[in-house]
Design goal:
This protein is mainly alpha-helical. It has helices spanning about 20-50, 65-90, 90-110, 115-135. The protein has a domain at about 30-50 and about 60-135. About 65% of the residues lie in helices and about 0% in strands.
Length: about 140
């Protein structure tokens, strides 16, 4: 009976994150700032002059357009602030960014009858942001 000599095994080094994932998260931060400004502008236009939007009286989610304006204004500001945090590399900003982008998606889905192209564009931006923030991997520190 022969015994094989054992060799010490070293744990495999963790795979380095792909550079494009990190860059894509930074792109998401910029998209969040742009999408947030768009939301703020949509909210302000609904608050200040709600005749800009088409009125749909038989819509299931029909709220007063001024109410929709406040929803978009607040969500847009939150998305923009979280975007600034993502650009600074703060962990809480990525978590908050995913949450407020998801809320923005739902708000824009309900807002489709009032302004369809704008809402669909913001839904697409929010989906890209969520995907980028979820797939983000921090680069390992080299010291």
């Amino acid at each position: 009976m022969t015994t094989r000599p054992t060799t010490p095994t070293t744990p495999a080094a963790p795979a380095a994150p792909a550079k494009w994932l990190t860059g894509f998260a930074m792109f998401a931060g910029v998209l969040m700032m742009v999408g947030g400004v768009w939301g703020v502008l949509a909210g302000l236009s609904a608050i200040l002059h709600d005749e800009v939007y088409l009125s749909t009286p038989q819509y299931l989610y029909s709220f007063d357009l001024t109410s929709w304006g406040w929803v978009h204004l607040i969500l847009g500001a939150l998305v923009a602030v979280a975007g600034v945090g993502v650009l600074q590399g703060v962990t809480w900003a990525r978590v908050v960014g995913v949450v407020v982008a998801a809320l923005s998606m739902f708000a824009n889905f309900a807002f489709i009858p009032y302004f369809p192209i704008w809402s669909i564009l913001l839904i697409l931006v929010d989906a890209i942001v969520i995907w980028a923030l979820i797939t983000y991997q921090r680069e390992p520190r080299t010291e």
